[in-house]
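User: what does the whole thing look like in 3D?
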Amino acid sequence: MTELLALGFFQRALLAGLVLSLLCGLLSVFVILRRLAFIGVGISHSAFGGVALGFLLGVDPLWTGVVFSVLVALLIEWARGRGRLEEDAAIGIFFAASMALGVIFLHLSRTYNVDVFSFLFGNILAIGPRQVLQILGVAVAVAATLALCFKELVFLSFDEEMAWVSGVPVQALRNLFLILMALVVIVSIYLVGIILVSALLVIPGAVARNLAGHIRTMVAVSMGAAAGATVGGLLLSYQLDWPSGATVVLLLSLVFFLSAFLVRRSRRPGG
Amino acid sequence: MSSAPVIEMRRLWVTYNHAPVLEDIDLDIQGGSFVGILGPNGAGKSTLLKVLLGLIRPSRGEVRVFGESPERLRRQGRFVGYLPQRPLTNPRFPITVLDAVLMGRYGQIGLGRRPAPADRRVAQENLERVGIAHLADRPIGDLSGGEQQRVFIARALSVEPRLLILDEPTVSLDACAQDDLYDLVQRVREDLGLTVLMVSHDIGAVATHVDDIVCLNRRVHLHQAPPIGRLALENTFGCSVEYLFHGQIPHRVVRVHDD
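Assistant: Here's the predicted 3D structure for the full assembly of 530 residues, as structure tokens:
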């Protein structure tokens, strides 16, 4: 174990995984309270189109992915705001369309290779110092923004109409939160990949919902669950020689089922 | 204070998809009065409130609240306290009663700042005013319907408003809790010198508690003071309404007419 921790690539993976999981755990509380789980799935899958565009144009897929996901997220919000389309339908349409676009981009760029696979399922052990810096940059920016409008986001999640009436800039905050989600989704792709990234946005908050009664403890439990499962998953995946992203998500799911079981027991009369 | 009108509406129209919801409303509401807004479903009561709260811009005409446009007033987050019809959309939401009341201060605290001790004091005082200070640290979902309603009144009062707007405040309450709520509103109004606007379709309650009644069915019919005549109600509701007082409990009997 000590020799493992001495390895440069594993140190980077652990640091990046820890930062990403704390970030996802923080965001996840609002994803659960505002019922944005499906939009998380939509944003992450639509990132595929952006990443593939990066391959086609020969630029860092991170940037094209960010631009693409933010655009799709805001398009979904715009369609919802116009009221002509239900939000779940809007998400279903936009994410399928961007994935299809991604397949076409990949076809045109003729790079059906390992790179694509690691974007789909994550490959945290392969990240370099530059990606670690990207992750740290996004983490600081997102955490600072969330800290600045934390109380307004709680108000918004609790009662959107009242937040409007009280002078909270509701639409700006809704858009801002979607942009933060898109940013976090894109950098989290390094850890668990496009297909599994929504797990990090949904499960930690759901665990916290089961175990915590107040928003502040919920944030702590959510971040703790995400970080614990990520560090544990990375170590376990190394021991078992399993894919790291999938191991993290499986461990996180296990934590969720445990928390659900604990809640059931504690709610049983006389138990 | 009582001389200048708190709310002024002039030739106000609101239309949705070319269909008028409010037609040519002219309305003045004086400071310090307790006004009930009566009307059948679909009469535009909620729309009227949303115009006053700055959530809907009128299609035509003018509206002023404290001499300002409601949208500007909303962005300042003061002067107007509001009790929505169904305030608790998510009963398991993980905050305490005090947290919920503090939200009334957020408009004035602004982005990026935490509630100051003075804000907490205002919230605490209003919890005392509505008689549930002992519940401050309980999860909001643990409270009964009547207690929750008091929490949201305390939140509305924490804005330190001069106008209090209540949207169907008693729909989810049983008879005793309804009476308690009307008494509470009356007491708060007198203590704080508030102007109160209350939307309801409970004719009996409105007629016994308010000073003036606005009957709304897309257009406005004004009544200076209760008791209101049967004819006026029939004009508003578009059906025959019998309004009976005997003993302590006012009744109403509605006969649907065929048209």
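In plain terms: The longest helix of chain B spans residues 175-192. The two ends of chain B are 46 Å apart (CA to CA).
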